[in-house]
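Ticket #4471: structure export looks truncated?
Reporter: QA, pipeline team
Priority: medium

Steps to reproduce: submit the single chain below to the structure queue and open the exported record.
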Amino acid sequence: MSVPERGPLSEPASEQSALWLGDTPDEEWTPPGKTPVGAGRTLMLEMAARVLFPTVLVFSAYLLLVGHYGPGGGFSGGLVAGLAFVLRYIAGGGSEGAEIVARLHIRPRQLAGGGLTLAVLTALAPMLFGQPALTSAKLSAQVPVIGELDLVTSLVLDVGVYLLIVGVVLELIRSLGAGIERDARDAEEPAR
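Actual output as written to the record:
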């Protein structure tokens, strides 16, 4: 079995380093951001943002799922997810924010509009059954491996609010970040 060259570790000095090479990923796990304004970027902040980003998103999903038994699960979860995107934007510059939005394959306005539509329809749905708006119901289902699973219909409303907040934050990053980058480039040009 031949090991492809990967820089200084390409020739194992011991059995331990040979095992290390077998676990080497084929591609970069944190691809660098491309930004025209390179001044003021710190490696520590970029690496911290890239490591914390998935953790903060999981925590926001936790807030979303747990918060439906209390007030504001979708809103607080959406704000935490939005802050994760803002952290990535601050750490990586404008292209980092644009790259994140491009990976979603959906425009932030569509995400916010879809979240608002879902929240409004969920809020008004009980009126079809003769109940006041924003009435929630508890649904129970028996799942073979998990057991009994209880879902509250207000979770759908919270998901709509979550998507609305994340969409608004992503749109703010896209629109305000473009202006900040433009101003930074304009300030840099006369200095040259």
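Status: closed, not a bug. The export was complete when the record was re-opened. Leaving a note from the reviewer for reference: Strands lie at 138-143, 147-152.
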